[in-house]
Design goal:
Blueprint lengths: L6 H16 L3 H12 L7 E8 L4 E8 L2 H12 L4 H8 L4 E3 H4 L2 H6 L1 H9 L4 E8 L5 E9 L8 H9 L1 H28 L5 E5 L5 E4 L1 H10 L3 H21 L11 E7 L2 E11 L5 E10 L12 H13 L3 H11 L4 H8 L3 H15 L4 H10 L7 H14 L1
Antiparallel strand pairs: 1-2, 1-5, 3-4, 4-5, 6-7, 6-10, 8-9, 9-10
Helix pairs in contact: 1-2, 1-9, 9-12, 12-13, 13-15, 14-15
Length: about 400
């Protein structure tokens, strides 16, 4: 059924569509959505509940006239007794009107209806199910009316149907960007003082990012132009050697190719990462790590990978085994070597990787390595390093 809308109502629906395209804060977009929705689809109470897959539970995101006690009661005590809630999980349908789904005898026999809905004076409910592009449940919009009002009508159901794609895409994008932000913030906190010099170059050998250790290192090199030129020459030579070799396997279990050479008692390790951009073009990034020898008697730095995965395990619900496997992958071990080291089958290794990659939002070992290195690095170093690289090019 196509709803018959006035020009004013159509303008409001367009405002809602624009809202989901332009706002990326989950709480803000959800609250404004409920406010705009009430102008074309009247309700007495309303709430947006987000579904947390890792915890298998709903969490309140926004509400109008529900109050925290009602939502807390629902998510903590009554959600498992909600017949309509179970239908949302089991069905890929978009909109659910309670009076179409629940028979009067079921209402009379259910604690949920006799206790929860009666306590909060709710007679009618209309629910929008938000789902990701893969069909996974993202959350729900619940609209409530008490018995003094009429039930939701077919036109109001059609309006909610029209908004399904906008709601689902807006919530999915906001969740994705929120995860990226959280992951980046965690990494910056963890790696502000990482001891190794780390730099990422693009395929033109232009510096994209560098960490604080790299910035300090460059300041020291300014007093020694010969060492400065030698450092840049070694980096470029390794990058060029990797690019000319061009050996790259599409097998996600193969670690990124790298070149390593000794320099000033330490070592320079350059890895080549191959990936596609948004247009499908194949790009090459280079990750440079310069490890200097520690003075005698100095304790080794705390394990960066261990700290990294201790935090990510809590944030993304990685299992201990998934974290262990990904940590070994970052050390350069292939799947077969990991299976032998942990005394498990190759099939089990691949299964753990698939699960861990899915939680971290990546697809391959190449992406894992690039993402890991990017999160080690602060952007503060970029301008100075690029400036010095240009000077070095002129000298050569």
């Amino acid at each position: 059924m196509e709803p018959s809308l006035t020009l004013s109502e159509m303008n409001i629906l367009m405002d809602i569509a624009f809202l989901f395209q332009s706002v990326r804060n989950l709480k803000v977009v959800s609250q404004k959505f409920l406010q705009l929705l009430g102008k074309v689809l009247p309700y007495e109470k309303a709430a947006v509940l987000l579904y947390q897959e890792a915890k298998r539970q709903f969490s309140p995101c926004a509400e109008i006239r529900c109050g925290s006690s009602m939502l807390r009661d629902y998510t903590d005590r009554y959600v498992d007794l909600d017949y309509l809630g179970w239908q949302i999980f089991q069905s890929q349908e978009r909109v659910f009107r309670e009076s179409d789904r629940i028979h009067p005898e079921e209402r009379a026999a259910s604690r949920f209806y006799q206790e929860f809905l009666r306590r909060y004076d709710v007679e009618y409910r209309l629910v929008l199910s938000g789902r990701s592009s893969t069909g996974a449940l993202l959350g729900t919009v619940m609209l409530f009316r008490s018995r003094i009002f009429e039930d939701f009508n077919p036109q109001e159901i059609a309006i909610l149907e029209m908004l399904h794609n906008h709601f689902s895409a807006g919530i999915e994008n906001a969740i994705h960007l929120d995860q990226i932000s959280v992951r980046a913030d965690l990494a910056q906190k963890l790696y502000r003082t990482i001891p190794d010099v780390m730099v990422i170059l693009d395929e033109r050998l232009v510096v994209q990012e560098g960490n604080e250790a790299a910035e300090q290192f460059l300041h020291r090199l300014e007093d020694s132009p010969d060492q400065q030129r030698e450092f840049f020459r070694v980096i470029r030579a390794c990058c060029q050697e990797l690019r000319e070799a061009g050996a790259f396997s599409e097998d996600a279990s193969i670690p990124p190719d790298f070149r390593q050479t000794e320099l000033w008692g330490g070592s320079v390790k350059v890895s080549m990462i191959v990936h596609d951009d948004v247009r499908g073009r194949t790009l090459h990034d280079f990750v440079v790590v310069f490890s200097q020898n520690r003075p005698e008697g100095q304790a080794p730095p705390e394990g960066n990978q261990e700290r990294f995965f201790a935090v990510l395990s809590r944030q993304y619900s990685l299992t201990r085994r998934e974290a262990d496997l990904i940590a070994l992958a970052l050390e350069g071990l292939e799947n077969k070597q990991i299976a032998e080291a942990l005394h498990i089958s190759l099939f089990t290794v691949k299964s753990h990787f698939q699960n861990g990659y899915a939680k971290l939002g990546i697809k391959s070992r190449q992406e894992l390595f690039l993402v890991y290195m990017k999160y080690l690095i602060s952007a503060q170093f970029r301008q100075e390093f690029e400036s010095q690289t240009r000077k070095d090019d002129i000298l050569w």
